[in-house]
Amino acid sequence: MKKIAIIGSTGSIGTQTLEVVRTNKDIQVTAISAGSNVELLIEQAKEFKPYIVGIWSEDKASLLREALSEFDIRIVTGMEGLLEIARMPESEILVTAIVGMIGIRPTIEAIKAGKDIALANKETLVTAGHIIMPLAKKKGVSILPVDSEHSAIFQCIHGEMNNKISRLLVTASGGPFRGKDRAYLENVTVEDALKHPNWAMGQKITIDSATLVNKGLEVIEAKWLFDIEPENIEVVVQPQSIIHSMVEFEDGSIKAQLGTPDMKLPIQYALYYPERRYLPGDRLDFSALSGIIIDTPDMDTFKGLSFAYRAIKTGGSMPTVFNAANEKAVALFLDRKIKFLQIYDIIDACMKAHSLIQNPTLDEILATEQWVYSYIEDYMA
Ligand code: NAD
Ligand code: MG
Predict the structure, then answer these.
(1) How far apart are CA 150 and CA 126, in angstroms?
(2) Which among 6, 7, 9, 13 is the best mutation to test ligand 1's pocket, defined by most ligand atoms within 8 Å of the CB?
(3) 188-236 tens-digit pLDDT
(4) Are 75 and 61 in contact (CB under 8 A)?
(5) Which atom of ligand 1 is nearest to the CA of 7?
(6) Measuring CA to CA, which residue among 100, 110, 296, 308 is closest to residue 216?
């Protein structure tokens, strides 16, 4: 019996993780947690009977306590609650399905407690990869990628032992605005940006896919996961999301992982690695594929990717600035306070105004996040 705790169990990755648990029937869910969706959290708690249920806001905790009073379940709140879930002795794997760099502290706490991490929460690795990867190594903990591109790479390098990777080819769908120019993007709405061609995901990552910030975050994520320099990580556009990513080895051989777009595959692979299990769902039908388009990304229009390369090449606290500025800008866009292209303006302004900290500590990363938020507040005023 595998024992997993999930932070962010009510979101897109969280609910699909529970779907994988349902079909396999040999995973015990030790804890679940969410930001605000109490109704779904209560349903999940009744079905999976975890030891702990976490909710971010204290206000909503009483609803949970009431609804779950007949069960022997501990209710926890806030960051302390997330940390308690991260280190709980009953679990072996922490699934980080939470969105945003709020995941940093729980991820570090879980690694310190010797838990493997099934990592969906890329913002954490982007901002604190230099702390997390060495700590995981020291603790003998595995960081198992859930992001489809990184899972693809992880699957391609399985069995390659010490064979040298010369290049990672991270695929991108290009999002809903692929092929469009700045004039078109000027007036796109929240609804337009939320229409992803291939994947149904949480709102934040869907906007990130439209700006190509998501691909930028993934380049940085790949650097940390696979210890590859950013100049050896290339993004290729593959609009159907059939090729999930590719790895080129020293001898020029390229391995790719393909499949229908279904996040349950990378989630299940992470939970059972290195074992593969039957996964219900459609299989890839090559005869129905009219052709696999491969294209280069338009990094001048979709600046999310160029900002990410700039951030990771600068290093230190710059990836935190890139990420935190994007988190805030996307929230403002979703709130209809700014236009789509202003997301880029805000990230750019923050990155230009920032005084770099080399090798930031956890406290410095969190302080940089706060600096970004107050900078944007002034910028918007
Ligand atoms: P989502 O918005 O659907 O879900 C986010 C989850 O985090 C929810 O359960 C929410 O309640 C929880 N949460 C948010 N704030 C919280 C807080 N303060 N305290 C506790 N819980 C909180 O997001 P998602 O699409 O599932 O994405 C989650 C992560 O996985 C992101 O980092 C994203 O980049 C990554 N990811 C997602 C996909 C996908 O297909 N959805 C693919 C690859 C990577
Ligand atoms: Mg991805």
Answers:
(1) 13
(2) 13
(3) 999 999 998 888 899 999 999 999 999 999 999 999 999 999 999 999 9
(4) yes
(5) 21
(6) 308
DSSP state string for 77-91:
EHHHHHHHHHH-TT-
Q: What angle do CA 128, 131, 135 make, to 5 degrees?
A: 135
Rounded Cα distance between 218 and 203, Å, is 17
State whether the Cα torsion 142-147-149-151 is positive or negative. Answer: positive
For residue 288, pLDDT beyond 80 = no
Which one of 43, 52, 98 would you pick to mutate in the ligand 1 pocket, going by the greatest count of ligand atoms within 8 A of its CB?
98
Cα(255)–Cα(199) distance, rounded to whole angstroms? 23
Name the band, by pLDDT with cuts 50, 70 and 90, for residue 10.
very high
State how far the Cα of 107 lies from the Cα of 94, in Å rounded to an integer. 8
Q: Whose CA is nearest to atom 5 of ligand 1?
A: 11
CB 74 within 8 A of CB 51: yes
Phi-psi group of 53: left, alpha or beta (phi > 0 → left; psi -120 to 50 → alpha; rest → beta): beta
pLDDT in tens, 114-168: 999 999 999 999 999 999 999 999 999 999 999 999 999 999 999 999 899 999 9
The whole-angstrom separation of Cα 328 and Cα 338 is 11
Tell how far the Cα of 169 is from the centroid of ligand 2, in angstroms.
13
Q: Atom of ligand 1 at shortest distance to CA of 37?
A: 11
Residue 314: both structure tokens together: 């600068």
Q: Is the pLDDT of residue 293 over 90?
A: no
